[in-house]
Amino acid sequence: MTELSDAEVARLERLARTRANMRGRRNPAVLPSKLARTAAFAPRKHGLSTDADFVRTYVVKPHAVVEVRGRELGTRHRDALIALFRLRAKRFETVGENGQVKGSVYRTDATWRDILKASGLTAHVNNLIVALRILEELRSVTMRVFTGTYDAYETAVAKGRLPSAGWSDGLIGSINWTGVNLDSEVSVTYGEWVRRTFETKNLVSVSADVYFGLKGDFARAWWPYIDSQPNHHYITLETLSEMVGRDYRTEPSKKRARFREDVVSAFNDMVRAGGLAEFELEASGPGRTKSYRVIYKHALPTAKQLDASDEIFGTQGELGLPNT
Questions:
Q1: I need a labelling partner for 132 at 20 to 30 A (CA). Which of 55, 108, 151, 299 fits?
Q2: So where are the chain's domains?
Q3: Cα angle, residue 275 at apex, residues 299 and 318 outer, rounded to 5°
């Protein structure tokens, strides 16, 4: 028997953890982990910068350092990605003239009706132009993703150097559609970084049912982060603020108090949508140095907490990995 490499062993271990931590999601979104844990999508639908010279770096320690170029992304752009990854990306090989495999691409094939339904939008032809515009805006953006540690990133930036290894690529490579009817076929091909993420299985599973059941922009910004880490049971307000491009520690008292109100509202939204069973905003420390964290309990048990694991994995193939 061929001995497995360290990378292959690590991949199998990730797969086992994925199986054990599945929460019985129906038709979840399967997406790269860094996209679930990034602040690159502003928590709003309107007032986004469309300046072609737009550049901003978003940091969520220690998970993701992402630079966005081309325009500002918001809730609707995250909605579109969640919908696409909910429909699954499939692997296609590219073949040269001599019949040899040159490479591979990952692509989501669906209909306009599928995309609108997965996005929580009404299946009406008037929504086609909205869906296409959002996809085209995603295609116009370049993301620079740094794969090293946050400490290495911070040290390099302080010295004016290029920080760590990484990728600079578009999330979407091309969009093709056969017509403008609801049942016309649509193909969305992903960029190189997304392809490599799928190849290495650096993926997480997020309940899209809960996501599209959320009403608030803050709740939609935070749910992928929370649901993609099933072994976590609390999150600090500092991390929540990073996820929406803010720094809670440096904000004035009134703004911080309003942010805590927004946090409570968003977590109530997650409970109402069926993602969380309960939560508590816990405070510790005196005065201005007081710190807060949200302690929460997931509404759905993990697979290792259930006896009927075959029901979870056997019916719809909800492994948290792309269909290949």
A1: 55
A2: 26-306
A3: 90
DSSP 199-250: HTT-EEEE-HHHHHH--SHHHHHHHHHHHT-TT--EEEHHHHHHHTT--GGG
Q: What is the pLDDT of residues 230-248, one digit of tens each?
A: 889 999 999 999 999 999 9
Write out residues in the chain with pLDDT < 50, as ranges: 1, 303-324
| SS3 at position 99 | coil
CA–CA gap between residue 25 and residue 313 (Å, rounded): 10
Say what the pLDDT of residue 314 is. Answer: 28
Please give the pLDDT value at position 2.
Answer: 55
Helix (H) or strand (E) holding 78, with range, is helix 75-86
DSSP label at residue 3: P
Q: Which among 133, 116, 137 is positioned nearest to 125, based on CA atoms? A: 116
CB 216 within 8 A of CB 261: no
Q: List, in order, residues 6 or more apart from 267 with CB less than 8 Å away.
A: 219, 276, 279, 281, 294, 296
Whether the pTM exceeds 0.90: the reply is no
DSSP reduced 3-state for 316: coil
pLDDT at residue 318, rounded to an integer: 31
For β-strands 234-236 and 291-298, DSSP reports them as: antiparallel
